[in-house]
Amino acid sequence: MKLLLVEDNAELAHWIVNLLRAENFVVDSVPDAEHADAILGNQSYDVVLLDMRLPSMSGKDLLSRLRRRGDNVPILMLTAHGSIDDKVDCFSAGADDYVVKPFDARELVARIKAIVRRQSSEKAVSLVCGDLHYQFNTREFSQKDAPLPLRRREHAILETLMLRRGKTVSKATLVECIFSLDDEPSVDAIDIYIHRLRKHLSTSTAQIMTLRGLGYILRTRDA
């Protein structure tokens, strides 16, 4: 999953980025709403973590701007106050959830996972493709009840395919999902990761198929 953090406190932003990357999230971080607005016009994210009070343009104003132009990216607001007024402001502007600073790391991760789960068409606690299982609460894969050991980017690609299982996912989308703004994106690397994933799934009833010129699709072998 790929996240965008919009937080002007450099120390807090650094802590959140390290925390989320340790949880196998791909994370981009910007210090103000203007940068975030520009990036969101060109990049897709699973969740945006948006500070309520930012310099120049507030998080609430950015959120309102996004919703007015039809951008429904899930938003988790970060607010320094847990007042009823702040909560009402968050939801009135179109936020999906909020967390009050200072927050516990486990709560932040749990709320992010809950938002992504709610975006799933089935709103289930797990996803299944053949004998391949994905648990939302742990973000772990298992095959035939055995954990599937994956490297970070292999996990990111399989997670993206699982969340969109049965649908074609372009190579450009996968590049966007696994590389942050600090990385040097490589389209060729996708082929390598797909090859590795197919090895992991060699005995699975789930398979990754290539649709030439279109991308990849995760589905059961008998589909």
Number of helices: 8
Tally of domains: 2
- How many beta strands in the DSSP annotation? 11
Strand content: 15-25%
CATH topology of the largest domain: Rossmann fold
**Average pLDDT for all residues:** 90
State the separation between the terminal residues, measured CA to CA: 26 Å
**Mind summarizing the main beta sheet?**
5 strands, parallel
- CATH class placement of the largest domain: Alpha Beta
Q: Work out the radius of gyration.
A: 18 Å
Q: Assembly state here? A: single chain
Please tell me about this protein's structure.
The protein is an alpha/beta fold and 223 residues long. It is built from 8 helices and 11 strands. β6 (126-129) and β7 form a beta hairpin. The longest helix has 15 residues, at 105-119. The two termini are 26 Å apart.
How are the SSEs ordered, and which strands pair?
Elements: E1 2-6, H1 10-22, E2 26-30, H2 33-40, E3 47-51, H3 59-68, E4 75-79, H4 84-92, E5 97-100, H5 105-119, E6 126-129, E7 132-135, E8 140-143, E9 146-147, H6 152-163, H7 171-178, H8 187-200, E10 206-211, E11 215-220
Parallel strand pairs: 1-2, 1-3, 3-4, 4-5
Antiparallel strand pairs: 6-7, 7-8, 8-9, 10-11
Helix pairs in contact: 6-8
Could you give a quick summary of the protein structure above?
It comes from Paraburkholderia azotifigens. By secondary structure, the protein is of the alpha/beta class.
Essential attributes:
single chain; 223 residues; alpha/beta; Rossmann fold; Arc Repressor Mutant, subunit A; 4-stranded antiparallel beta sheet; 11 strands; two-component regulatory system; transcription; phosphorelay response regulator activity; Sig_transdc_resp-reg_receiver
